[in-house]
């Protein structure tokens, strides 16, 4: 069974309690949309919330984050404005644009906290409820964000490395697809800590999967002694399985994160297992927390990070998440 941490469980319960208890100062019914149905499941005003991520075009991971955010926004009568840019300066500008637009809340990732954090701090300083998700767990408090939803990348990487060690693996190629992303560096460092063996970093362009596959193939041909290729996202993992075949290598492929295609790859054995951080939940809780902040000034996690992972997905439990993955919820 996949496990949900105590913090996550508490967060979900808190959100449910807030939703159940919600009532307007006049005791009115929830507002209705133009079609006559309720605009969300709550009776609060129509808030506008921005989510700004570092997702690159075509990266299906962020589709899952966005789906969770959209579902929470629909429930909470929120207009969600989602935007992303893999370049840190551009992402910071998107945050500033959201501030200038006068949004009611901001959820932001911090893959490069030094570049993006100051813009997020400006939002918090202006009284805009601002939370972090996915990347930046060790930095979000520095920039005044009131909460964070994600996994500790070092802890997750260490757990993955320990699993590799238990499997008898000794030499891992860790594939970083976003150079300069501190979260990815932390994952690979954690793998090395848990494995206690050799972990070599390989940088590829995650926005050009054909080139990424070619780079991995060349590395495996150059050094066939790697027993594991560790991808940090599902699309790169799928390409890595092709690289292993092209190079005639014996390495197994494992990865962080899942999508529908990755679930199928675990089923048929192309990918041994994945570390799951529940991206749908990250998006959902981030937006729900901003509604709570506007509703009554409350927070999820008491200012501490709310963990959404890690857990492992392998052949033993992959069927439990298969349907959710097909629906774009895992």
From TrEMBL:
Name the InterPro entries on file. Answer: Bact_Solute-Bind_Prot2 (IPR050555), Peripla_BP_I (IPR028082), SBP_2_dom (IPR025997)
Keyword annotations of the record: Signal
Task: Please list which residues make up the signal peptide.
Answer: 1-29
Domain named Periplasmic binding protein is located at: 51-291
- SUPFAM superfamilies associated with the record: Periplasmic binding protein-like I
Family affiliation: Belongs to the bacterial solute-binding protein 2 family.
What name does UniProt use for this protein?
Substrate-binding domain-containing protein
